[in-house]
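Standup notes
- DV: blocked on the single-chain target, sequence here:
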Amino acid sequence: MRTRQSDRWRRNMSYYAKLLIAAVGVAQLVAACPADAADVYPNRPVEFIVPWGAGGGSDQTARELSKLLQAELKVSFPVVNVPGGTGNAGMVKMLSGPSDGYSISLLAWDTFALLASRPPKWKMSDFITLGIVIQLPSGFYVSQDSDYKSWADVEKAAKANPDGLKVAISGFGSPDDLTIHQLAKQGIVLKAVPYAEPGERYSSLLGHHVDLLYSPIGNIGSFVSGQQMRPILFFSDEPIKGFEDVPTAKQSGHDISLPQRRAVIVKADTPPAQVKVLSDAIAAVVAKPEYAEFLKQELASPASYVPTEAAASLMESDLAAMKNMAAGK
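- DV (later): unblocked, structure below
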């Protein structure tokens, strides 16, 4: 009797010991999995904020990058359009969120120029630049049937009727606005009309609600190729290939050249390891043939990409130039 009880006790102990060992193994596995998953960044979608409406150059750039980044990092980068305040609304949305690397934003120079002309609540130290991803010249455009056949025609009309010619711009404080103020100091007085939505700017020109449109060249390429709009002046150092008959501002006696640049940024204090993952991914995707083709279609510089450290230096230089313009220098 005692032997049978002893055997049963040994069998029970062996059974419970096996259960205990199995339980410990499962617990270790469960404990290890979340930690391993958390160490992998990114492991969920990364919000890509565009501080402008759909259809414009910033939106097009972000959507092209979103597609390529998704393939590179194996998570989605949903584009979220947050227009308003010359891009300020989108900046506030990103900067008010956590510094966890799951929200990035496209910063267009339209918005960056606010630091020079209408200082917002945010500053350069509030974000980290992951890289400048596109650089392209801007210009003035007229509708195809406009009576203004040349920039000389515009100058003549502006001098005869100061503040009579209307220009659709992205917002007050933008490079568009700074350019118009600079022209005014040189005797060409134009009236700026801001539109937060790109589509509204384009339709305002096509509907003859304004006389001119200020825009980066790539944004309205389809309207130009479709012979609905035509460039009349470029703000670039050199004539634009394919538009050699269109003068630059410098050729017309106006020393104004503010290129449009767009950068991808993330909130400051984002962990360095996550910043590196993002910046490395951007460097990888902008080197792909698909992105080179996108730059070509946008008539942008093929050497548009500027990495983090060099981007910060270039931004400081651009900001100084824009501050001088805002001060009338």
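- Follow-up: The mean pLDDT is 88.
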